[in-house]
Design goal:
The protein is an alpha/beta fold and about 550 residues long. The protein contains 23 helices and 14 strands.
């Protein structure tokens, strides 16, 4: 081990001890050990034990700990604290700029135990109410989390979208005569991507794209270049002749499963040397298949017709205000939704059991209804619907007595607590909520946070069947950290004539912009406007929720 590695172990020990509010004298000692050792010019690994003891500030216990690390790579004192600290909380300590005192507050008061849960807590404005926090601190945490997760090798599509568009624009500027397109998982708008992929069709060399600071080439294999952007995002660039642009775009866009199904269906077909992608489909006598559908075999075998687009969405069905944990007032949320061209807003603040999110107790529910009535008189024909995101309690019941639930115009039923469930427990919990006569929409059915937290396991077919039988729609939560229901279950839902509601789960006016990510994911599952609840016109949405009631 190097001196730097040894010093970092002491630093980490001090931080994890501070996290547990352990002996402050020992914490200070280990902090000083870190500062001393990292500055030593001679390697401790090559230093005799007696020489270590002569270093100012290094006592006999520290020497023993150094010897233990040099022999085993760690020390018993550190292992003791690691054993009683959740792995996700330990990971937080490694994020630059995160202090153990604040991490302890988040862990103990919010029950947050993973980086993904912390990031989502920031997104839902949970940190601003904690002692010692505020909007600036929360935003600082969010930015540091963004940087940390981007360095882990996988990216949410939402995180990488802007970088992909910028790269495409820059390459087009450098190669004005070339045909250039994004391809691969980014073009398919996959929920998670590992790299940017770009196809460059040019009859000339393209080496000039590496003659500046735009990209740093790391490897090359024939006509494929591997590089990184200035922000360390991996990039793969495919180069072909202009006459091959369509063929190669088709080839590099398709996921492996889709491509295999295509080749199995058309064995021996020659689709090389085509300058347009449309020509490939014409030769195969297939209708044009949207890039989002080119993931699995059924994307080729099923005619999904016209897929939903963002402009089809007519209402913001899932949104929070300052009545619970939103950043903006009910009026601000409504005015912003109207300014974006939406016809209605379903306000769904958290229910009373969500105490961490300032959930509404019964008296505050009635007060909010009164404000909605006044705003509806003022803002007509725009309409605000009295909704709630009701917690599904541990036994599957909803989070209010029937007389309160009956007063809401619609109810989104969601699980927010006790997430560590086996499949049978989770499925039964959801089934009971779906069968509740007041449930209108099942919210984010697995509770997942992409790249951060696996959803609890459920029997998707049973859940979808139950929703169909009870007239309950399923949410596709458009928050890019969720995108839950997963797009791969949409085809089965469509077979059951189930409505999918693309909902932003907006905790601010800006959160409404997430609708587009829900649309991207919905398209991957073949969703059309007619099967999308939030695409209903105002009167139709009003009719749907009134029939359910």
């Amino acid at each position: 081990m190097t001196n730097k590695e040894i010093a970092k172990q002491f630093q980490y020990l001090a931080e994890i001890m501070e996290l547990h509010e352990d002996n402050p004298f020992k914490i200070k000692t280990y902090q000083n050990n870190y500062l001393t050792i990292r500055k030593l010019p001679e390697p401790l690994a090559e230093m005799p034990v007696e020489e270590m003891g002569k270093i100012k500030g290094i006592g006999s216990s520290t020497v023993a700990a150094i010897q233990e690390m040099l022999a085993s790579g760690t020390m018993q004192a550190l292992r003791k604290f690691e054993e009683k600290t959740p792995p996700g909380v330990q990971e937080m300590l490694h994020i630059p700029g995160f202090g153990p005192k604040k991490i302890r507050v988040i862990w103990k008061e919010l029950g947050v135990e993973t980086i993904g849960e912390l990031r989502y807590a920031c997104n839902e404005n949970r940190l601003v109410e904690l002692k010692g926090f505020g909007e600036k601190t929360q935003e600082d945490f969010r930015q540091k989390l963004d940087y940390f997760q981007k360095s882990q090798g996988k990216f949410l599509f939402a995180e990488i979208e802007a970088a992909s568009e910028q790269l495409l624009k820059q390459l087009s500027g450098l190669l004005p005569e070339a045909s250039i397109s994004l391809t691969g998982a980014v073009r398919r708008r996959s929920n998670i991507v590992e790299r940017l992929e770009v196809l460059v069709a040019s009859d000339q060399a393209i080496s000039q794209i590496f003659d500046n600071e735009l990209l740093t080439i790391t490897n090359q294999q024939e006509n494929t270049y591997f590089a990184t952007t200035k922000n360390e995002i991996p990039v793969t660039i495919y180069h072909c002749q202009l006459s091959e642009f369509g063929s190669k775009l088709f080839r590099y866009t398709a996921a492996e499963a889709f491509m295999k199904a295509f080749l199995d269906k058309f064995p021996g077909i020659d689709f090389k040397g085509m300058s347009s992608e449309a020509a490939v489909f014409e030769k195969a006598k297939l209708p044009f298949i949207a890039p989002e559908l080119r993931e699995l075999a059924w994307g080729m075998e099923t005619d999904f017709g016209s897929l939903v687009v963002e402009s089809d969405i007519r209402g913001v069905v899932h949104a929070h205000s300052t009545w619970s944990d939103g950043l903006h007032s009910l009026r601000q949320m409504a005015e912003h939704a109207r300014s974006l061209g939406y016809a209605y807003l379903g306000i769904t603040d958290h229910s009373k059991s969500a105490f961490y999110a300032n959930g509404l107790k019964e008296d505050r529910v009635v007060q909010q209804w009164a404000e909605i009535d006044l705003l509806n008189q003022e803002m007509a024909p725009f309409r605000i619907f009295k909704g709630i995101e009701s917690d599904i309690l541990n036994d599957g019941s909803l989070d209010y007595p029937e007389e309160i639930l009956a007063g809401f115009e619609f109810v989104i039923a969601s699980v927010h607590s006790n997430l560590r469930m086996e499949e049978e427990k989770a499925t039964q919990r959801l089934l009971k909520a779906i069968e509740n006569k007041f449930t209108t929409i099942l919210g984010h059915p697995t509770g997942r946070l992409l790249l951060s937290r696996q959803g609890y396991p459920i029997d998707h077919q049973k859940i979808i069947d139950a929703c169909a039988a009870n007239g309950v729609a399923i949410e596709l939560n458009a928050n890019p950290y969720r995108l839950d229901l997963d797009w791969s279950w949409i085809p089965y839902a469509l077979k059951k004539n189930l409505l999918i509601s693309i909902n932003p789960d907006a905790h601010s006016t800006g959160g409404m912009n997430d609708i587009k990510y829900g649309v991207y994911s919905a398209r991957k599952g073949g969703l059309s406007r007619k099967n999308c609840l939030s695409s209903m016109e105002l009167a139709d949405f009003e009719q749907f929720i009134s029939v359910k009631k």
